[in-house]
Amino acid sequence: MAPLSAENIFPIIFLLLTTFSVSKAELHAHYYDQICPQFEKIISETVLKASKHDPKVPARILRMFFHDCFIRGCDASILMDSTAINQAEKDGPPNISVRSFYVIDEAKAKLELACPRTVSCADIISISARDVVAMSGGPYWNVLKGRKDGRVSKASDTTNLPAPTFNVSQLIQSFAKRGLTVKDLVTLSGGHTLGFSHCSSFEARLRNFSSLHDTDPSMNAEFVLDLRKKCPKPNHNHNAGQFLDSTASVFDNDYYKQLLAGKGVFSSDQSLVGDHRTKSFVEAFAKDQGLFFKEFTASMLKLGNLRGSTNGEVRLNCRMTN
Ligand code: HEM
Ligand SMILES: *[C@@H]1O[C@H](CO)[C@@H](O)[C@H](O)[C@H]1NC(C)=O
Ligand SMILES: *[C@@H]1O[C@H](CO)[C@@H](O)[C@H](O)[C@H]1NC(C)=O
Ligand SMILES: *[C@@H]1O[C@H](CO)[C@@H](O)[C@H](O)[C@H]1NC(C)=O
Predict the structure, then answer these.
(1) Tens-digit pLDDT profile for residues 134-144
(2) What are the catalytic residues (predicted)?
């Protein structure tokens, strides 16, 4: 047998590389083990440092992952900047959009030094989302890797995101379009255990709600008064709003307890207790945080498996195609 030399191993490597880049490869737990072993550590350190500096970062990154995966699959389409000829996803409605992109940029810059042209921006978002959950007291799981970054990002796509005014049927339908179940819907909505909402996302519930009700009847009455104070009319403070549960920097099951008390911030949240298809999951998660953590892990893996186009790349700069 001929000894392995540079000449005869090169065609094999070439073949492997080309096969990999054209196939819609499955995601792997060990995708970077050989090609960039330090990559998770680099991302985790970056995310942890940014979160210590700005406590808003964990919630923003978790929401970033959700929005990215719901539009064209988890392909980092959310990271692309608008250009002269294209308005990108991040600049589409809803107005109150995702932020903290600089954290992903920082991780990417370090990764390009450590292992150039290797780690996709989509994988950076997935690892970061896992990290912010874990560092906030939530579960830890092994992220599957090997995503590619998409080449398309359109502002108009964001109209496909579920709205905070959606009822259960609309939410179920929106998740089902992505192969996600009713249980995934209730579980992933638990992401609202972290973070904050601006008044504009829920204030329609507080005044002149419908022809029959001045306020949303599914809301706790004291909670309505509290939110009216935080969101006065007229409101000159564009930063005003409400934390999504009573422990908004801790990843726990308090969100579900708040829902059972009529204190869900969005109609979409509160609607989960008003329907027999979803209520039993809310009750189970409110009772058993361990169960919520277990299901959240499973549903985040499913969310992270949503795939975009086959024709992806590893972007050098997360804000633009190569
Ligand atoms: C079920 C449908 C969902 C709807 C309708 C929805 C809607 C919203 C809205 C309107 C906001 C507030 C934006 C603002 O006013 O600043 C928000 C924030 C947030 N969402 Fe969702 N969301 C949904 C699902 C999810 C999922 C699945 C996750 C993650 C697993 C998630 C994570 C977050 C987080 C962490 C925040 C807080 C962001 C911050 O503090 O900056 N959401 N969501
Ligand atoms: C975004 O905000 C601006 C100014 O507040 C408003 O005029 C516009 O209608 C909003 N667009 C959407 C899609 O909400
Ligand atoms: C949910 O909203 C849709 C669209 O507005 C409406 O057609 C449907 O009847 C609503 N379903 C429920 C259960 O309220
Ligand atoms: C409530 O809504 C009705 C119908 O949309 C409108 O005519 C009325 O002016 C509103 N009232 C207040 C206080 O905004």
Answers:
(1) 999 999 999 99
(2) 67 (proton acceptor)
